[in-house]
Amino acid sequence: MKVNIEKNRHVYWNPYFGGFLLGILILATFYITGRGLGASGAFKSTVVTVVDDIAPTHAENNAYYEKFIKKDDTPMNTWLVFESLGILIGGFLSGALSGRLKLFVQHSPKITSKRRLIFALLGGAFFGFGAQLARGCTSGAGLSGMAVLSTGGFITVLTIFGSGYLFAYFFRKNWI
Question: Deepest of 13, 38, 43, 74, by most Cβ within 10 A of its Cβ?
Answer without folding.
Answer: 38
